[in-house]
Amino acid sequence: MVGVARRGAAFVDGDRRAQFDAAGGRLALSGADRVHDGPAVLVKVTDRDEARSRAAAPGFEVGDITTGPHERRCVAVGPDGFAAILHSPLG
Which DSSP string do the residues of 12-37 spell out, in sequence order? Predict the structure, then answer.
């Protein structure tokens, strides 16, 4: 999917993912870099620990923080089964 999406992408990371600027935001499509089995919203945060705590407070199941090639991230799954991937850049 990412290979097909290269044209018009704002950012491409090999076969891992592609990002597109759309309507004042950014849409990311995951390729080989999947941290969740279903669809998920990718949310860039400035404070991972605070975001993780805030997601856990209303009952989201929040996984451990892991390190990817460009970011640190965790998956938060809500009671309805929908997921958000909370991430921030390394460094």
Answer: EETTTEEEEEETTEEEEEESS--SSS
Q: Which domains are assigned to the chain? A: 1-34 (no CATH), 35-91 (3.10.180.10)
Q: Partners of 25 in the beta sheet?
A: 22
Q: What is the pLDDT of residue 18?
A: 73
Phi and psi angles of residue 55, each rounded to the nearest 5 degrees, phi first: -70, -35
pTM of the model: 0.67
Chain segment 18-70, per-residue pLDDT in tens: 777 777 777 766 665 567 677 777 788 888 889 999 999 999 999 999 998 88
Quote the CA–CA distance of 48 and 46 in Å, as a whole number: 6
5 token code pair? 């999406």
Edge-to-edge strand ranges of the sheet holding 11-13 = 11-13, 17-22, 25-30
Residues in the chain: 91
